Automatic annotation (TrEMBL):
Residues 370-453 form the DUF7586 domain. Pfam families: Beta-lactamase, DUF7586. It comes from Streptomyces zingiberis. SUPFAM superfamilies: beta-lactamase/transpeptidase-like (SSF56601). Residues 24-348 form the Beta-lactamase-related domain. This is Beta-lactamase family protein.
Length: 475
């Protein structure tokens, strides 16, 4: 079953349908559901293959998850695995926004007795804490959660493998710790906090810790034959914040819209933008993939994507979002391995973004402006390097390099007539206009750098001074 929407061109819909169908057929997935979000709403969805009730040699499963042979729809539940981590990160950032924690706080300040308490909340969020990737016991995704009744059962005797803050090392137990932190400060189960603070406000009624029909049963597909083996769907217990959730393409579309725009009932836009800033980067030189605060980051086809993937026995899931294009791609499948859901979700984004580029909002002049701010605009020079300062809405400024690889940043106005950097090299730095004794504008001071109206203006206090002979031809 494929849902067609008038807001996409027929050629785009055909390409999306083809890409998702190829992912299901070539990946040998019993079923696959896909969706695209643009402009904050689902504009396309498709279902491929057939839902088959789980069974055993002794008989069928107690509850038939979906009508046998039915195609999946956008409201069919799949297990989404580590996509759960992004939801847990949202809960942690809500604690930060309320002033209950700081991201640089050692875990021990809020959750004592874990044995890894010197790692910080931020290091856990971005997998920079150096913790082990997995639990010390049997394969935790295929064993009942009651076999891990306490945090020590997911950390083991050697929970720290690398120095904290030195490298990216993905850690499932790290997110179990973050879930325990949420429970400790909220004084109620992680599941209840998640439903009240995130799922209900965002209208995600088909997302939860247990499946509700219709849902896709989980299968392993034999690598050399077209036959299936049922996978167990275990309750993960204390590891739930790392991978427990079930969701649907429609609900993940609502979550994608939140991650693009924010929602004041959950987290504002500025905080969800903070989540997708690189906080841990595996590569040493530049980065092609990285991790923010609960979000995977990927450079692909000239775009920066953010989102998360997930896998549990019987299930694969991926959500990729391009903020610049305002497009998200979602792919869910009920197979342990085979379907390349990550590349497929990325391709869904590219198909829409390339074929139907985002229409920019109409330019409109500012409704109000401040003459003192207008005085700051125009060309400035750091030594001989040209920059421009532009006035933004809301009394903001943007410093833009006009040549080469110069540094560009936006700035927020402060009550003391300074500006604080919001991004780029000058993130957190202070921009200060300096005036002469007669009140005229002399120069800009930005983290000890002096920006002048002319290249190496001799009338400004340029560090090191300006040669008295001035500019001259080569002797």
């Amino acid at each position: 079953m494929t849902a067609l929407h008038d807001s996409l061109l027929p050629e785009t819909v055909r390409a999306l349908h083809h890409r998702a169908a190829v992912a299901q057929a070539e990946g040998r997935a019993p079923s696959l559901a896909a969706a695209v979000v643009r402009g904050g709403r689902t504009v396309w969805s498709g279902g491929y293959g057939a839902l088959t009730p789980a069974g055993t040699p002794e008989g069928p499963a107690p509850e038939s998850p979906a009508p046998d042979g039915a195609a999946p729809g956008e409201d069919t539940q799949y297990r989404v695995g580590s996509l759960t981590k992004t939801f847990t990160a949202v809960l942690v950032l809500r604690l930060r926004e309320e002033g209950l924690i700081g991201l640089d706080d050692p875990l021990e300040h809020h959750l004592p007795g874990t044995g890894v308490g010197e790692v910080t909340v931020a290091q856990l969020l971005c997998h920079g804490a150096g913790l082990a990737a997995e639990t010390p016991g049997p394969w935790w995704e295929r064993t009942p959660g009651e076999t891990r009744p306490a945090l020590r059962d997911v950390l083991g005797d050697r929970p720290v493998l690398h120095p904290a803050g030195r490298r990216f090392h993905y850690s499932n137990p790290g997110y179990a710790l973050l879930g325990a932190l949420v429970e400790a400060l909220r004084e109620e189960p992680w599941e209840a906090v998640l439903r009240r603070e995130v799922l209900e406000p965002l209208g995600m009624a088909r997302t939860g810790v247990r499946p509700r029909a219709p849902y896709a049963a989980g299968w392993a597909v034999h690598p050399w034959a077209d036959v299936l083996l049922p996978e167990p769907a275990e309750d993960l217990g204390i590891m739930a914040p790392a991978g427990q959730l079930w969701s649907t393409a429609a609900d993940l579309g609502r979550f994608a819209a939140f991650l693009m725009r924010g929602d004041e009932r959950v987290l504002p836009a500025g905080v969800v933008a903070e989540m997708r800033e690189p906080a841990a980067v595996p590569a040493r030189d530049g980065w092609e993939a990285g991790y923010g605060l609960g979000l995977l980051l990927l450079r692909r086809d000239g775009r920066v994507l953010f989102g998360h993937g997930g896998s549990l026995p019987g299930y694969l899931a991926t959500l990729w979002i391009s903020a610049e294009d305002d497009v998200a791609g979602i792919v869910l499948a009920n197979a342990t391995a085979g379907p390349a859901v990550g590349p497929a979700a990325g391709d869904l984004v590219s198909i829409v973004a390339d074929r139907e580029p985002r229409i920019p909002e109409p330019w409109r002049p500012l409704s109000t402006w401040d003459p003192e701010l207008l005085e700051l605009t125009g060309p400035w020079y750091w030594g001989p390097v040209p920059f421009a300062v532009r006035l933004l809405a809301g009394r903001g400024l943007e410093l833009t390099a006009l040549a080469g690889m110069g540094r560009t940043s936006r700035f927020r106005a402060e009550p003391d007539a300074t500006w604080t950097g919001l991004d780029g090299y000058y993130l957190g730095e202070t921009l200060r206009p300096v005036r002469r004794s007669d009140g005229t504008l002399s120069h800009l001071d930005l983290g000890s750098f002096v920006f002048t109206r002319e290249p190496y203006d001799p009338a400004a206090p340029v560090p090191g001074g300006v040669d008295r002979g001035g500019w001259r031809p080569l002797p």
